[in-house]
């Protein structure tokens, strides 16, 4: 099957969106990459696909295999999607970007389908505040970036996710 999906940041569907065509043999990880690339976002954070449109839901597929839950390595055809169905990509658990995904069309696949953006409108900045900083300002504000800081950030992000999941489960 070939899926045509309209994707937009939650609350911005009229001003910025992408229509993406993707093969059902692609994975949710592949869909995430297509979405992030189409909006010029960096791909360096954890994410989840929320099938019920709720963050940290049990009905989700996770980017990290270290966490409990279903893996985003699942092929799109295995999801049982229907036309007009909506689900979400929750990206970057610190900034909490929510992308709404609306399945517009499902067609039989005739030959090999390459993932592509078939329509695009508007622009969204992932880090709007950072665009104004000069290189010298960045170093003064945030210091030199080294691998140890990156590893520490990933551990903090994972801890934050786990804390939220535990609170959710205890409700």
* Gap from first CA to last CA: 39 Å
DSSP strand (E) fraction? 25-35%
Name the assembly state.
single chain
SSE order, as H and E?
Answer: EEHEEEEEEHH
Overall strand count: 8
* Average predicted local confidence, pLDDT: 82
Largest β sheet strand count, sense and barrel closure: 8 strands, mixed
Uncertain regions spanning at least 5 consecutive residues: 146-153
What does this structure look like?
By secondary structure, the protein is an alpha+beta fold. Helices cover 25% and strands 27% of the residues. The protein has an eight-stranded mixed β-sheet, covered by helices on one side. β6 and β7 form a beta hairpin. It is globular and about 45 Å long. The relative contact order is 0.22.
Topology:
Blueprint: E1 2-9, E2 17-23, H1 28-38, E3 47-50, E4 60-62, E5 70-71, E6 86-91, E7 97-107, E8 116-121, H2 135-142, H3 147-169
Parallel strand pairs: 4-5
Antiparallel strand pairs: 1-2, 1-7, 2-8, 3-4, 3-6, 6-7
Brief sketch in words of this structure:
The chain contains three helices and eight strands; from the N terminus they run ββαββββββαα. By secondary structure, it is an alpha+beta fold.
Attribute tags:
25% helix; 8-stranded mixed beta sheet; alpha+beta; 27% strand; 171 residues
């Amino acid at each position: 099957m070939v899926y045509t999906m309209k994707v937009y940041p939650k609350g911005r569907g009229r001003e910025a969106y992408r229509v993406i065509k993707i093969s059902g043999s692609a994975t949710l990880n592949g869909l995430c990459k297509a979405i992030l690339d189409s909006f010029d976002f960096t791909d360096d954070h954890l994410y989840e696909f929320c099938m019920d449109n709720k963050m940290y839901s049990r009905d989700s597929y996770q980017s990290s295999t270290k966490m409990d839950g279903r893996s985003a390595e699942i092929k799109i055809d295995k999801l049982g999607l229907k036309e007009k169905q909506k689900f979400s990509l929750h990206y970057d658990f610190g900034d909490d970007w929510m992308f709404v995904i609306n399945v517009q069309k499902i067609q039989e696949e005739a030959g090999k389908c390459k993932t592509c953006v078939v329509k695009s409108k508007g622009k969204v900045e992932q880090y709007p505040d950072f665009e104004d900083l000069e290189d010298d300002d960045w170093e003064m504000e945030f210091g030199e970036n080294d691998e140890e800081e990156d590893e520490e950030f990933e551990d903090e992000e994972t801890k934050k996710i786990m804390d939220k999941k535990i609170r959710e489960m205890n409700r």
